[in-house]
User: Fold these one by one.
Assistant:
Number 1:
Amino acid sequence: MNAPAPLAEIDESGLAALFDALVRRGRTVVGPTVKDDAIVLAELGSAAELPHGWGVETEPGGYRLRPRTDRAAFAHSAGPQSWKTFLHPPRARLWQADRASDGTVTVREDDAPAPRYAFLGVRPCDLRAIAVQDRVLTAGAYRDPVYGRRRDGVFLIVVECTEPGGVCFCTSMGTGPGLPEGSAFDLALTETAGPGGLSYLIRAGSPEGSELLAELPARPTDGVRARAAVAGAAGRMGREVDASDLRALMAGTMTAERWNQVADRCLTCGNCTMVCPTCFCTTTEETTDLTGDHAERWRRWDSCFDLDFSHLHGVGPVRSSARSRYRQWLTHKLGTWYDQFGSSGCVGCGRCIAWCPVGIDITEEVTALRAESGAAGAR
Amino acid sequence: MTPVPYRVADRRQESADTVTLTLAPAAHALPPFRPGQFAMLYAFGVGEAPLSVSGISGNLLHHTVRAVGKVSEALCRAEPGNWIGVRGPYGTAWPTPPAGDDVLVVAGGIGLAPLRPVIVESLARSGRLSVLVGYREPGEQLFPAELPLWRRRAQVLVTVDRPTPGWQGPVGLVTALLDTADCRTDRCTAFLCGPEPMMRATVGELLRRGVPAERIVLSLERNMHCGTGWCGHCQLGPLLLCRDGPVVDWARAGEPLSVSER
Amino acid sequence: MTAPRLAVWKFSSCDGCQLTLLDLEDELVSLSGELEIGYFLEATSDTLPPPYDLSLVEGSVAAGADLERIRWIREQSRHLVTIGACATAGGVQALRNLSPLPEYQSVVYARPDYLDSLDDSTPISAHVPVDFELRGCPIDKRQLLEVITAFLADRKPDIPTHSVCFECKLRGTTCVTVAHGTPCLGPVTHAGCGALCPAYGRGCYGCFGPVPTTPGGGGPNTRAMLPLLRRDGLSEADIARLYRTFNAEAPEFAEAARQAEEEAR
């Protein structure tokens, strides 16, 4: 049996050293930063741009920045974006085509190399979300070239969660707040703030991660404080939900009255799908220039809330009402995702709850559907 | 996932708004298609549409296209020699019926197109073949050139919703033809394609007559953009129709199709 | 093959949507190569006789003479596209539909008897069949270019009908309602502007009108918006005014304004 690997930690200067090491390796570092009164994900110029000293308060339909009493950089829950912005970008050109005077068409695929990203501050829930999109976009019969190129080169630095938000429920979904066994990552950090400043428990999850860790000014630690912070977070989730056998619950409640009630509140604005870190749907744009001899195929994020999403010639939208569109979203996310991709599509990050303008709460909907289904079963 | 260049080798007008295109690879052919599978056909500068093959002969693909939108209109206008981009093959194929089984084909309008290869293959089999087709009007009838050949080996019954002067065949729903269909319901595989209400009604009748759900096979349609399982548009409950369809048996399609989606 | 002949028509409007065509500075030269300008008085006093392949119609039907003219234009046009909130929903001037016209006329004009005004300002589609409606006050120039290039290529224009929220999310704008408590009509408003206002920290004013209503029950859920707009500081009167800014007579926004007034009572 192997002896347990010694634990290491770095301090704030070590975090800066990590950042610089990533830049030296030619990586574009993406991480959280404060912009427009929110903690967004953006390309960062230095570790100083991290949201040091900022936390957030979230509730259904609400998100506010709050100053913290410490300098913690990762003591905030999910913001308005997720990493899919970078791996599965909102718009991407797939190919261009030109028509010659003899009618022959030449098609050129857009295969420019993707940026070599380093994602700094991936939460365990979001790491699971990346794994979920991996399965959808790269593990089937076809591998999505846009996602695949970006995903292949990415360096993942997970930061475990020590400060869950009001809409978080990762514990219920089994995705956090600590890094689940068997997760794939390059480096994992756990941030704690103490009288001596910030410290980060750090461990490597890949050869490249180990190599980078060896360059950092790390010191040994027992890791007790970090472990306690993560364990404490598990008990402070803003929400919880009974996630047992959601697939059967969804399949069994397709005609529930609850769908009518949620439809009364739903704006069908599509925000939940856009902020969801696993929602992957896209549509295509066919563009031409004024001469008509140059065409381009783009794709952009789409949503099951868009009426055109299910449009069929001669039929119109297959799903028209708010009821059927919301039901499609939820039953896919929690139910038929298992049939299609072998897992849940929900990771418990809570974004859909916070960024729904009218505060529709997925955990509340599940609970209500379960209650209705239970009541129906008892009858 | 870029369109592969094909050329229109032949164009046959089937009816006022429907043509059959024969497409030949301009350079390299796509992997072989099987009946029931579909291609994404690209009309330059206009867009792509998913279309099941209506025939396969070697490297040549046959697609029967009805002009219902801008892309299909552009495809219908294509002349021999014109460039068409093709992606595929995508989706599931029609199953091979057990040896000795009868084959029942029930089609609504343009739904006959994906079923054409089933008919062509069944003509060469032992066992009975019955083809029931419903059109809105007599002028919509497809494959007029092939009908005499089919009729030599198979029962072909055509009904219309709205007869025009001179129409002597039956009038009404295609389900009304089931009583006269020449097939043994206990030894029959049914192949269906057409508008969903027509397929639901037909399935209901077939189940009532004792055809098992696994032997009732449908080609289904949903909005599609990629063909590769990435765009999400073609969901039908647990099924991604570009991947798990378009050909699905009733044992799998029945439950999701029983949910009212409106 | 001759280039398709373009006509640009003005009804009751401010000219801002026509001007959008001239704002296509980078494309104007190639545009004039692909299209023959048959009638576009804001650009040239030279005109060519009908018929026209593509007519862009700006403005609402608000005067008696408009009724005859729009029917003539329709007859002379192979493809007719209405551009802007006036042409698609009656525009700002449709506010007059809410109260009796003579009251306004006598206040504004010395000799109202010279006027040829109709009681209501109405969209073009209320009078003739329209092939496509391009929304906005004013329209977006990228969208106008898309409608024209799509017409030239005979393809479906890519003009999404979803909410403005889609555009905020696509461009990475943080939601002003959720993060700042700013009242915003984005969730019930038709996309097209590229979510301009929220990108500058302002709520959406609904310039592009309501998201579409479908027979199957799709449409803007303005009733669910009411408590949200109130929470973010608007009175019922404010809410009614907001819905009546640019698309007062778009049926869904007219109804939303009525809902707000009803609540106030």
Number 2:
Amino acid sequence: MERLNKSEIAFKAFAYLIVIAFALMALYPLLYAFSVSISGKLAYESQSIILLPKDITLTAYKMVLYDKGFWISYTNTLFYTVLGTMWSMAISLTGAYALQSVHLLFRRQLNFLLVLTMWFSAGMIPMYLNYKQLGIDNRWGMIIAFGVQAYNIILLRNYFSSIPKEIQEAAIVDGCHEFQLFFNIFIPMSKASIATVTLFYAITRWNGYYWSRILIANSFEQPLQVYLRQLIENYQKLYDESSVVLDYSADSLAYAIIVCSIIPVMVVYPFIQKYFTRGVNLGGIKG
Amino acid sequence: MAETQDVRMRQKKARLIFQAIAKDWRLYVLLMPMVIWFAIWMYKPMGGLLIAFKRFDPSLGVLLSEFKGIDNFINMINGVVKEEFWQAFRNTFIISSYSLVFGFPVPIILALLFSELNHEGIRKITQTITYLPHFLSEVTITGIVLMLVYNGVHSAGVITTLFINQGWIEPNASIIQQANYFRPLYIITGIWKESGYNSIVYYAAIMGISPALYEALKVDGGNKFQEIRYVTIPCMAPTLIIMVIMRIGRMLSIGYERVLLLYNTNIYVTADVLSTFEQRIGIISGNYGIGSASSLFNSLIAFALVIGANTISRNISKTSLW
């Protein structure tokens, strides 16, 4: 054990204090949201809930779970997340493989054009008109036209480039062609990076809001985030229209909706967290 | 003579390219999906930026619409919407600068503090917790924030209640509806959502510093603050510079989703930014000409900012994005 001098001990104590305080503050809104969502009306409206729930009742959740629109949008989001992630991954993996190959003609130029999209984009209006023109207003359109990111392709490309050239050469000598090289060597050797990028894409799809709201014509195809936002905007009205006297407050309803939408993320989060941190530190951002 | 030679050279080059592609055709099959995707969804709309110079008529399309020169730009900065435009322009820079000043240092400090925690369990748990809000959607995060600060008839959000009880705000004040609260609200929301996650990259940089450097300073009798000043910060410099460049490049495209979800018509004075202005003028009101002019303006300034920041840092510190 190394000896610490006074300033180091003071600094360490300070570090523990601040970090723990920051973590508690980051967690507090979520805990509070959960507590209110299962608390009774009187307890909430008398401002007596600070952290822990009071007069526990699950009826707010009942209202959410009996809501058809909630389930429709939930299913839609699952659809967008699963198929959209597969679509994005298919394009990113094949593209990343091609971009790392030394045989590729105009490789530098293609890489440049890819990186450029990270720094220069057409902007919202031209993109909007493009989506309109090409008829992106339904489920399949949302999957096809969105969700491929230059950053993620670069991440995969950089990882692919780090696979030893000897292995590739040996495979080529054995008569492997590019498809076999891609499927039998590159993909199995990059499982961790592929997992990371898959998760990046999945989270982006799960959280997608703006373009769905603007583009999707049929409200039955809206994802959860759009539905959630509409509920947050209208929960007071929804609550007031209820035919029976409710034992929870309108706010509990809003919080219950929010909690329901984050449960899947919270459930998988502890398991996938390490992949995300790895992803950030993986290839870096350099083109 | 020279001409035929030139033609022959070009033919030979074309043939060579063709042969190379034919030989590695599988590689190009793998390349194609990505090229097509980016061509249609990223590069094709760039052509649509021409709308900024035209009186766009959807029935004619981009190319056939009437060319109007810079009329749209003049209308934008000096027409009916000029007040809205300049207000959004000003807000964009003010909000960006505030988030740079207040938001940028937080993840760095956090990473510095994380690196001090010897107790691995506590460090892992606190890191996991602080990264979490990054993975929740903007709708969720802003939903919770709006609930915490609203001030309603039956009840008030817990933060509003606290502030009223402490006498920091008037009992009937509404943080959501009053313009002067928007910027702090936006920036604190951003700090809550992103600082933990943004600390990852700094944390990795600190972990990469050789312990020998710290040892050397210790032998010389340096204390903790000298350690941070003379070892940690200089060793983190490349990461810091890259992050600043990226931040500056994104200055104009500040999270429009978050603004859109947090603001309302009463607080445009402080809350409306270029991207929300653009979507309101363009998508909601259907004025594609001015909308595209604003898009182009936005994209060009953003691009210029990245190149500028990158050049400056390459010259003074030898660190750059490219």
Number 3:
Amino acid sequence: MSTTVIDVCGLACPEPLLAFSEAVKKGDVTEVEIRFDCAFARENLSRLAASLGWAVASLTEAREYTVMNLTKSA
Amino acid sequence: MQMKQNWFAGGAGIAVTGAALAAVAVALQYAGNPANMGICVACFERDIAGGLGLHRTEIVQYLRPEIPALLLGAFVASLCFGEFKPRAGSAPLVRFLLGICAMTGALVFLGCPWRAILRLAGGDLNALTGIAGLIAGIGIGTVFFRRGYSLGRNAPQRTGAGFIMPGVMLGVLALLLLFPQIDGEGKSGILFYSVKGPGSLHAPLLYSLGGALLIGFLAQRSRFCTMGAFRDLIMFRQTHLLIGVLAFLIVAFALNLFLGKVTVGFAGQPVAHAAHLWNFLGMLTAGWAYALAGGCPGRQLFMAGEGDADSGLFVFGMIVAAAFAHNFGLASSPAGIGPHGDVAVYVCLAVLLGLSLVHLRKAA
């Protein structure tokens, strides 16, 4: 089982959300790592993930960007 | 690292922002700003263009301090909470053109989405056709996003680059202080003022500054955006931002009722016309442009305050378009749409279609 990595640094909403929702539509994906630098994507992604049945496993803030790891809830 | 809590980004925070915007807008109307125009980003940028003499429509000339204060409020909030991130380079010329199309449409309707809400809260039913147009325009934008529309990535810039827009806005405020209005005079130093009409109606400077700074601060924290409210509903079935818009409408309506400022109807509404088709198409044009640019006019000011130079260009596009709109007879008035308002809408719709198609990428 591999992690799908999405890099949306430099892109603003709705693009990070679209990238996430499109990635998880592929049925066999259970782990996603998404990198973004748009401050609003943090809350927006958390909300969208929750509504699609995903949970935020960890959040790491670097200087230039944030890494969010998400896992599909059972 | 622990997820930083941002109370304002939650449901209560966005509702508080919407309610505060309503309270400030209605209070500014009470204190002297034009009716149903307590804060209108499009109208006030148009007034700034007039105050600077970029157009010479005598009834809409005033260096509205609310615009600089909204941007500076967001600038301060972003500095306080580590979200000041100078960035630029995501199709700047396109964003300038989107600002032009947005303002052209907004001046055919006569207001930005904030004013559409304020007009509705004052009983102006023409706002309903406008808001329907806004939602339709945003809907068109989402179709292109789903098909891979993107203006591309921005890139981080040096810290100093992020100070440019706040600096420009401080300059606007400095001009207002250096050349204050002289009673009954249409000119003060290099600035133009209205002696009658909406441009002559304004709240005391400190009220305008204080109210708009507060809104800028709150809206940066809560990410308040009227375009985003409908976009997220259409694209992701997310109602978060919509809570803010609804709070804005409900509180503004309640305050207007309390003050006896609600007059329900289509005809004779303040700074409005009842040409339904053009209220709809004007806002559709503007809504499409807001969607493609990623924010309503207010949100563009807040993002510019956070250091987003591309949003700054959108703001300049709006100010320049306001000048063209009045010089070329594109802007509406209570008498109806301008002599060339219809052609302007068609041209902008064609430009928006072109920009949408040019920026389609093959979806991943």
